[in-house]
Specification:
The chain is an alpha/beta fold and 430 residues long. The chain is built from 15 helices and 15 strands. It has helices at residues 25-37, 44-57, 68-78, 95-103, 122-132, 165-174, 199-202, 235-245, 254-260, 285-296, 298-316, 352-361, 377-383, 391-399, 411-427, and strands at 61-65, 85-89, 107-110, 133-135, 141-143, 149-154, 178-182, 190-191, 194-195, 211-216, 229-233, 323-324, 332-333, 340-343, 400-402. The chain starts with 24 loop residues before the first helix and ends with a helix. It binds pyridoxal-5'-phosphate (PLP).
């Protein structure tokens, strides 16, 4: 049933940004202490941050790098995925997920999203493999059209709504795939007792197959170090990735450990080896100082996100069938990175774009997450994928708007904004 029409809402007195970072004097003090220590780049604080993150996640090991994009790129290299190979991913993601596959010369194979949440499903990927691939000689699957060997699956925990990682692990084992989760949004997300990035989901699959998660600490993310990324996974593959993140130097931590461990063994020789064509993607101690404080305050920030999401949920109950609220799957804890509100176009005389504009007039900042990768001109030209190929992702994009959500916002700000959003939608109800 469609509820009664509302009067047009008045703007908020002040602009409500979409995702402002929550940082404060504690971060400032910790950054200042790093600056005063004289050691600015990769060093002891990075190591402390990696250990603290591994402890928080319950991960076998973690590796901090310059961004989530770099994490995805480097680990695909460490897994020796390259030209001749293909990686399955979702079209509903930030472009860097697909870019990382192309950086290593591999071919991205998109599978359409399945659920209301915007995630890939293991069932749909399995159906894709049955239809579009054939088993190759070593048990790997070969993509029929391109002849590429499908080596990995790169699903995204969209908005921080956790994927069914257990189902993906089973699929990966059956089909001989590495699993690399893009967990850019998903720090703090959980399915059952298993944290995204934790040991239960990242234990090696056996037969040389690995499972890894990649997080982002970009400015808008649930935990931020301004820029930054982190891999969680097995020590074996992370060590290879670590070398690739610092030019390919075998012992990239040697420089700071010599300086910072006065009680340790005598300084090693000046010489070092470069064992691979590595990159310059290391983390810095300035980022780590921010990260250590953000991690200490993370549980509080997450609890706030959950309360803010509950405010939206309550306010939007009365929208009836005008919009689809983000669904929390049973026995999961989303990280609430996003609050993606999905419009039902048949019920509203207002497009997603018009809603975005009108909310801006009401002083409410929003964001569109995401334009599907295959619709960008580069991907259109490069992969020649026509519009309409992934209808679920395309429809999700066309009808979804992510609402302001950050632990920096107060409950009353979100309460007030949610009433205005509701009033606007009711005003345009058909
Ligand atoms: C789903 C997803 N993957 C990857 C990234 C890339 O993260 P970073 O900016 O740390 O490289 C983002 C960034 O916004 C993202 O949203």
């Amino acid at each position: 049933m469609t509820p009664a029409r509302e009067t047009y809402p008045q703007p908020l007195p002040q602009f409500l940004p979409f995702a402002p970072p929550l940082v404060g004097p504690e971060e400032l003090r910790e950054i200042a202490s790093t600056l005063e220590s004289g050691w600015l780049t990769l060093g002891p604080k990075t190591e402390a941050f990696e250990k603290a993150m591994a402890a928080y996640l319950g991960a076998p090991e973690t590796l901090a790098v310059s961004s989530c994009t770099a994490a995805l790129h480097l680990v695909l290299r460490a897994l020796e995925i390259g030209p001749g190979d293909a990686v399955i991913t979702t079209p509903l993601t930030f472009v860097s997920t697909a870019h990382a596959i192309l950086y290593v010369g591999a071919y991205p194979l998109f599978v359409d999203i399945d659920s209301q949440l915007g995630n890939l499903s293991a069932a749909k990927v399995s159906a894709f493999l049955d239809k579009s691939a054939r088993p190759g000689p070593d048990g790997r699957y070969v993509h029929r059209d391109s002849g590429k060997i499908i080596k990995a699956i790169l699903p995204v925990h969209y908005g921080g709504f956790p994927l069914d990682s257990t189902a993906f692990r089973e699929l990966a084992l059956q089909r001989r795939l590495h699993i690399l989760e893009d967990a850019a949004h998903a720090l703090g997300a959980q399915r059952g007792n298993a944290k995204v990035g934790g040991q239960e989901l990242l234990a090696p699959l056996g037969e040389g197959l690995h499972a890894l998660s990649a997080f982002s600490f970009y400015a808008t993310k649930n935990l931020t170090t301004a820029e930054g990324g982190l891999l969680a996974g097995s020590p074996e593959i992370l060590q290879k990735t670590r070398v690739l993140s610092s030019y390919g130097i075998s012992d990239s931590r040697r420089v700071w450990s010599r300086r910072h461990d006065p009680l340790g063994p005598p300084p090693p020789a000046w010489d070092y080896d470069v064992e691979a064509l590595g990159f310059k993607n290391n983390f810095t101690d300035i980022q780590a100082s921010m990260g250590l404080i953000q991690l200490k305050n993370f549980p509080l920030a997450q609890a706030k996100r959950e309360r803010l999401a509950a405010i939206y949920e309550r306010a939007f109950q009365s929208l009836g069938d005008l919009a689809i609220l983000p669904q929390k799957e049973e026995d999961t804890i989303p990280s609430w990175h996003l609050y993606p509100l999905r419009l039902v176009p048949e019920k509203l005389a207002l497009s997603r774009d018009a809603l975005k504009e009108k909310l801006l007039d009401l002083n409410i900042g929003t964001s569109v997450m995401f334009r599907p990768v295959h619709t960008f001109s580069f991907y259109r030209d490069f992969l020649k994928i026509p519009l309409g190929t992934y209808p679920e992702a395309e429809r999700f994009f066309e009808t979804t708007l992510s609402l302001p959500l950050s632990p920096k916002h107060s409950e009353s700000q979100i309460e007030e904004a949610s009433h205005k959003i509701r009033a606007l939608l009711l005003y345009y109800a058909r």
